[in-house]
Specification:
- By secondary structure, the protein is α/β, with parallel strands linked by helices.
- The chain has 2 domains: 3-25 and 281-383, no CATH class; 31-272, Alpha-Beta Complex (Spore Coat Polysaccharide Biosynthesis Protein SpsA, Chain A).
- 48% of the residues lie in helices and 14% in strands.
- The chain has helices spanning 3-21, 32-35, 62-70, 91-101, 122-136, 157-168, 184-200, 203-206, 225-230, 243-252, 274-282, 285-288, 293-316, 320-335, 337-342, 353-372, and strands at 49-55, 78-84, 108-112, 142-146, 150-152, 172-178, 220-224, 257-267, 378-379, 382-383.
- The strands form 2 sheets. The protein has an 8-stranded mixed β-sheet with strand order 3-2-1-4-7-6-8-5, with helices on both faces. Strands 9-10 form a two-stranded antiparallel ribbon.
- The radius of gyration is 22 Å and the shape is globular.
- The termini are far apart.
- Mean pLDDT is 94; it is low at 387-391.
């Protein structure tokens, strides 16, 4: 057996596993509409919810974000706490101006954040600050942790989250918000970002009580307060760079969790060029590998065999190796189609998946280099990787 044929068979075996035995991640079937369909009964009494929004220099998007929260048609008691985390661009003023314009200023509280103590990341410190603030005034049934660049396009989005969480008893209900996908760099890389995230954390496994796999998407996390308190609060994950997945693992120890895709909640942060997306990925990619050069090497070899070998064999090698390579390339392109449909992108982007994977591999190497240079976890002027467990 030739080396080329051996590689073809190895790549084919990997894709058989991914398609058949990896939780059906590629189907993108876990959706908020399936979690909380319209026929699910409403709670007997709608529980109190408070949104906690960490924000650092978000003046360009905060009005849309806070406005979409304040105008939610939630039937119960709902308010918003914004933690202005050392902003220098008037983030807090922009948020309050929007609330005043909507005549809903009484539903918005703005508190000043503090610099994170040693061992804390900035976002988690801001989240903990928000939780302490609301605890002093009486803890709600649920806390909605949501980012400053998230817009709730459907005014009933929160109602649907609470309806589903109440009916199914989830202690964490998280939505992978629909990311912006307008520029060329976004069209090329954003659907793949969601695809790779689902492959790493198959949502069906995350949502299964029989699987230890846990994750969440930090843009939208509805958390049952009692479960968070019992798990040790935000401080239990204070140094986690990938804070949403750490929150998922923390809360799955307390009860059922749900993670799904949605079209009702969107990110409004633009990633207009490749450098913006590189920084987003590089901030935490090496943390995902536990800052291990050995895992970085293994990931590189795995990505090469999984994504790059099939098109190379299809193009450059004749015989069975080339035929198998072409078939595997077609399989991976087809597996990308459900996410491409979600983002309304052309099916031919599936053919480009191997080359997109190569770009993400380069971003992962950049993440490692930034960590080695002492600039890991860079976000809004903070280098936070030192707070990670492997730093």
């Amino acid at each position: 057996m030739t080396a080329a044929l051996s590689l073809a068979l190895l790549s084919g075996a990997i894709w058989i596993y991914l398609i058949v035995a990896r939780g059906g991640f590629w189907r993108a079937a876990e959706r908020d509409t399936r979690f909380a369909p319209e026929h699910i009964p409403a709670p007997a009494a709608w529980p109190r919810v408070i949104a906690v929004v960490p924000a650092r220099d978000e003046a360009d998007v905060i009005a849309q974000s806070v406005g979409s929260l304040l105008t939610q048609t939630y039937p119960g008691d709902f308010s918003v706490v914004l933690i202005d985390d050392g902003s220098s661009d008037g983030t807090g003023d922009a948020a309050m101006n929007e609330a005043v314009k909507l005549d809903l200023a009484d539903k918005l509280t703005i508190i000043r954040g503090t610099e994170p103590p040693a061992g804390w990341t900035g976002k988690l410190n801001a989240m903990a600050t928000g939780v302490r603030h609301i605890e002093e005034r009486g803890a709600p049934a649920y806390i909605l942790f949501t980012d400053a660049d998230i817009a709730y396009r459907d005014p009933q989005a929160l109602e649907r989250l609470v309806r589903g969480a109440n009916a199914k008893g989830t202690v964490l209900t998280s939505l992978m918000v629909k990311l912006r996908c307008d520029s060329f760099s976004e069209k090329m890389l954003i659907p793949a970002f969601v695809y790779f995230f689902q492959k790493l954390y198959p949502f069906a496994w995350v949502n299964s009580s029989t699987s230890k796999r846990a994750a969440a998407a930090g843009g939208c996390m509805l958390v049952k307060y009692d479960a968070l308190h019992a798990a040790g609060g935000v401080g239990a994950i204070r140094g986690a760079l990938i804070d949403d997945c750490a929150m998922g693992a923390l809360l799955k120890s307390q009860g059922p969790i749900f993670l799904g895709l949605t079209e009702a909640v969107e990110s409004i942060r633009p990633y207009d060029d490749f450098n913006h997306i590189r920084r987003m990925v590089s901030r935490s990619a090496y943390s995902q590998l536990d800052y291990s050069p050995l895992l970085l090497l293994g990931t590189t070899l795995g990505m090469i065999v999984t994504y790059l070998v099939p098109p190379y064999l299809a193009i450059a090698v004749e015989g069975w190796a080339g035929i198998i390579g072409a078939f595997v390339w077609a399989v991976m392109a087809l597996s990308f189609q459900p996410i491409l449909r979600l983002y309304r992108r052309a099916p031919l982007w599936g053919v480009a998946l191997p080359f997109i994977a190569l770009v993400y591999l380069a971003f992962t190497f950049d993440s490692a280099v930034q960590h080695w240079l002492g600039r890991g976890g860079a976000w809004k002027g903070r280098y936070q990787a030192a707070a990670g467990t492997g730093a």
